[in-house]
Amino acid sequence: MLRIVVCVSGGGTNLQAIIDGIAEGTIRNTEIAGVICNNAGAYALKRAENSGIPAFCISPKAYRDRTEFNAAFLEKLDELNPDLIVLAGFLVILPEEMIGKYRDRIINIHPSLIPSFCGTGYYGLKVHEAVLARGVKVTGATVHYVDEGTDTGRIIAQKAVEVLEGDTPEILQRRVMEQAEWKLLPEAIDRIAAAHG
Ligand code: GRF
Fold first, then answer.
1. Catalytic residues
2. Tens place of pLDDT for every residue, the chain, 197 residues?
């Protein structure tokens, strides 16, 4: 059984896709040991609660400095003893120590076709605003391993999504979520779980 911890910051639609995938059996051999969130108001916490999944809010605002936050975050992570850490819309800079300790066991979903529209400053709607500003006709999402860089780790899977006439950032974000993110992330977890034995 692959034990995963899902780290979230916002609406939690990717978390929900994982919860639903496990419930429907499209994600096999996997259990969510816990959800860690940095934002007390995130709806993702409600999604975890609704599914009876242990959820922990660890916000940088609750600590004197980044060192204290990093220590608290890593302590909770270690306590949950994950085989895999899934960043699903998680907007926190990861402690270097965590990346070293969990090397090749942290994956992230990014809402573009890396190496386009990624790196510092490219997150959430900003990604889709940049896609529309550039006028590309195809975008999509990428699941990748996390290393010390921003969106620079080894790519696991990608899925292309058409940009349509009249798209707003919000409409495009929704299409990328529905057609790419919510499929790619569960599929990647299922594949990792199958190899985990
Ligand atoms: C979305 O922009 C998504 O593309 C990215 O993180 C943001 C929040 O997603 N992965 P979620 O609804 O919290 O999963």
1. 110
2. 999 999 999 999 999 999 999 999 999 999 999 999 999 999 999 999 999 999 999 999 999 999 999 999 999 999 999 999 999 999 999 999 999 999 999 999 999 999 999 999 999 999 999 999 999 999 999 999 999 999 999 999 999 999 999 999 999 999 999 999 999 999 999 999 999 97
Say if ligand 1 is within 6 A of residue 89 CB.
yes
Residue 102 Cα to ligand 1 midpoint, Å, equals: 22
Q: Where are the domains of the chain?
A: 2-196
d(CA 99, CA 147) in angstroms, rounded, equals: 6
Name the residue with tokens 């529309």.
Answer: 132
Tell whether pTM > 0.90. yes
> For residues 181 and 88, what is the distance between their CA atoms, to the nearest angstrom?
10
- Residue 16, ligand 1, Cβ within 6 A: no
Report domain 2-196's class.
alpha beta
